[in-house]
Design a protein that fits this description.
Keywords: Cell outer membrane, Ion transport, Iron, Iron transport, Membrane, Receptor, Signal, TonB box, Transmembrane, Transmembrane beta strand, Transport
CATH class: Mainly Beta
Number of strands: 39
Membrane topology: Multi-pass membrane protein
Subcellular location: Cell outer membrane
Number of helices: 8
CATH architecture: Beta Barrel
Shape: globular
Strand content: over 45%
Largest sheet: 22 strands, antiparallel, barrel
Number of domains: 1
Organism: Chryseobacterium camelliae
Structural class: mainly beta
Family: Belongs to the TonB-dependent receptor family.
Length: 724
């Protein structure tokens, strides 16, 4: 808090004393603000250039300026600005599946795409190299494939690119819970003719948590990029992402229910003694995690109508170390609550992706009518080599919920515990080759009317592997994935009505059918979405809004029946329906004042089940997240006068109650929450100072992916940046 007060005092003093006029015109600054908060046109959502107003798919985008103003340094925090997206699980740092998970339109999704290609980040994702984050809503397998997309949507991060002038900035940041960070963004032309350009973004962060201020979790990001422009027709891009992490994941409570705890909601369990601020472990339960992503692209403008894009992506994740987790159990004889403490460590775990993609974009007229087409081919290889170890008894120990010295579960004691031989292991290995071809065309028969037709053929060829002690046999599954859309601009470039049909499927491969570890090959899941709504782009582009209604039907869903350790026992349950309404508004209302926000409602339920679970029909899945979500952020920046450059904002997020367990016999609910954040900054030509306070009402709030994970209490950051 002392750091926050000092930073606010410095900011106020500088703002009052500022007398020197910046050479940048206020109109130019205003245009930058409008673009940052309003501009949404993109080539990535449909792999072709389409204006937001003429795109039949709903998507959101968050610009780097928004992150800069709000002092946001991770993609996880950035997504709080996107309507209908709820974080369910922060990064666990495990290879393969260790990244953060989100709920969108009633389905679980994670952040796996970079510039439209597969490049997962399995650690906390640093935002240092992000130009913007895009979130596409609904099943999107037609253009992006089934293996990396969710039925609720997908998240694509667009990275910063080199530019022709020398420039950049360096920043120092400090704040609550021993948070320290240093970062730099440096750009330079390598050759005098400015054909070869270089840019590097790097950051180092060390931080504690509100439960353990001396945790010393460390994160390092190094992300260089290189661009070579041979001529006006041909260019090459090369990018690299290196993320290094040594951290303990956030606290997670599994298997919560009234039967096990005596309570059906987290609020009452807290009142009974669960300590929100207690870590329940000692020190040094770290996981070491590494991410290495390499991306190369060749852009060739063949002629004015045809463009070729060839891209290659290699992604690698690694982890080794502890991953503690907990449950709460009531002793029926004494009604005393206990914490069962366990761990699922990874040992030299790895997962690799290799992808080659070729796209041809065409923009031509046929019979006097415009056509925009993308045709592409994609090959992706996935190599899984994961190993997990955990206590053979299922847990490390069981201790009282309150009044105990929890430091005895630490890196040394858990390591010694495994050395005694009281250990079980579980391996997940396998190689998967995915071959795809797709084509999408937007046909404009008359001005303002755009009709989209797209289709993908995908073949998944699993080479075989191992799940636990059992071999998983090879298999092949393939499917067609169509997509259709129509947009009519009732007022050209201002107001449109749209509708879409989107399809997706997923080869889930083998799943564990019982506690003995027996496996079965699942039939492909299939999802179909119908959506309709309106889009606006009013007052010279200063108000951008969308309103939509969607209905997603899924067949052959896998349902979790229970767990062995942290491995799910599943059945191919039947069918699920998810429908809802989403409203998003981005507005630059008056000079210097911007608002972004939205509200969403999701009604998700099972519609068909196997014979033993008919009583679950009509219930909401426990992975669907909160039905109601809302977000907003209002920001004002002085563009003229003695206070020019001073800005401040306030924002917040609301989520209704989230049932992380939902069966006819039992349920467990995480309470609704409303979290408020505030920020202020002073932006001058050569420097920038910023402060923020997140969760300034000190709200206790929980998120969870069938789990309960406590989130940060009030915390503050201050930053100072030098620009050159």
């Amino acid at each position: 808090m002392k750091k926050m007060v000092l930073s606010v005092a410095m900011l106020s003093g500088i703002a009052v004393a500022a007398q020197v006029k910046d050479t940048v015109k206020s109109n130019d600054i205003e245009e930058v603000i409008v673009d940052a908060y309003i501009k949404k046109d993109t080539e990535y959502t449909n792999k072709m250039p389409l204006k937001a107003i003429e795109n039949p798919q709903v998507y959101s985008s968050i610009d780097k300026t928004v992150l800069e103003n709000q002092l946001i340094f991770t993609a996880d925090d950035a997504l709080r600005n996107v309507p209908g997206v709820q974080r369910m699980w922060s990064a666990t740092n495990r290879a393969g599946d260790g990244g953060a998970y989100y709920s969108m339109r009633g389905f679980v999704s994670n952040n796996s795409l970079r510039n439209g290609l597969v490049a997962p980040v399995t650690t906390s994702m640093d935002a240092i190299n992000l130009e913007k984050i895009e979130v596409l809503k609904g099943p999107s397998a037609t253009l992006f494939g089934s293996t990396v997309t969710s039925y609720g949507g997908l998240i694509n991060r667009v990275t910063k690119k080199p530019y022709e002038n020398f420039g950049g900035n360096v920043s120092l940041i400090g704040g609550s819970y021993n948070y320290y960070r240093a970062q730099a963004d440096i750009n330079a032309p390598v050759t005098n003719d400015k054909k070869l350009l270089f840019r590097v973004n790097t950051a180092y962060t060390n931080q504690g948590t509100f439960q353990k201020k001396d945790a010393k979790n460390s994160y390092f990001a190094f992300t260089p990029s290189l661009t070579y422009k041979l001529n006006d027709q041909l260019s090459f891009n090369l990018e690299y992402e290196m993320f290094e992490t040594r951290a303990t994941p956030e606290q997670s409570f599994f298997y919560l229910s009234k039967a096990s705890t005596g309570f059906d909601n987290m609020k009452d369990l807290e009142k009974a003694g669960l300590d929100y601020k207690q870590s329940y472990t000692g020190d040094d339960l770290y996981t070491t995690a590494k991410v290495r992503n390499l991306f190369g692209q060749i852009n060739y403008q063949i002629n004015k109508n045809i463009r070729s894009t060839t891209a290659v992506s290699s992604a690698y994740s690694y982890s080794d170390g502890f991953n503690p987790y907990f449950s709460v159990i009531m002793n029926p004889a004494t009604a005393a609550l206990n914490v069962v403490r366990s761990d699922q460590s990874t040992v030299d775990s790895k997962k690799k992706f290799f992808q080659v993609q070729q796209n041809f974009n065409l923009d031509y007229s046929f019979g006097g009518m415009r056509n925009r087409t993308v045709a592409g081919f994609d090959f992706m290889q996935t190599r899984d080599r994961q190993m997990f170890i955990f206590p053979a008894s299922g847990s490390f120990d069981m201790v009282p919920l309150t009044g105990f010295d929890y430091s005895n579960m630490n890196g040394q004691t858990v390591g010694n515990f495994y050395q005694t031989g009281n250990v079980s292991d579980y391996a997940i290995t396998g190689d998967l080759n995915t071959y795809s071809g797709y084509i999408s065309n937007v046909f404009t028969p008359v001005s303002g009317l755009n009709i989209m037709a797209s289709v993908r053929y995908e073949n998944n060829d699993f080479q075989g592997g191992k799940s636990g002690t059992l071999d998983t046999d090879p298999y092949k599954q393939s499917a067609w994935s169509p997509k259709f859309g129509i947009v009519y601009e009732i007022v050209k470039d201002r107001f449109s009505v749209f509708g879409n049909y989107q399809n997706s499927f997923r080869s889930n491969g083998y799943y564990m059918t019982d506690a003995a570890g027996n496996m079965a090959l699942s039939a492909p899941e299939r999802a179909n979405q119908f959506e309709g709504g309106f889009k606006t782009n009013l007052i010279n582009g200063r108000i951008n809004a969308s309103l939509s209604y969607y209905n997603i039907d899924v067949k052959n869903t896998l349902l979790t029946l229970g767990y062995v350790g942290a491995r799910a026992i599943q059945t191919q349950a039947g069918a699920q329906t998810s429908k809802g309404v989403e409203l998003e508004v981005n507005a630059y209302l008056v000079k210097g004042f911007s608002v972004i926000g939205g509200i969403s409602y999701n009604d998700s339920k099972f519609t068909e089940m196997d014979s033993a679970q008919q009583n679950r029909i009509g219930l909401r899945p426990d992975t669907a997240g909160s039905p109601w979500l809302a977000n907003f952020n209002a920001s004002y920046q002085f563009l003229e006068g003695n206070l020019k450059g001073l800005g401040f904002g306030i924002g917040g997020n609301y989520a209704s109650g989230n049932k992380i367990l939902n069966t006819p016999d039992s349920s467990f609910t995480l309470p609704k929450y409303f979290v408020l954040n505030a920020n202020a900054f002073y932006d001058a030509k050569k420097f920038r100072i910023g402060v923020k306070v997140d969760n300034f009402t000190n709200q206790h709030y929980w998120i969870g992916y069938t789990t309960a994970n406590p989130q940060n209490l009030i915390n503050a950051l201050g930053s100072i940046t030098y620009k050159f």
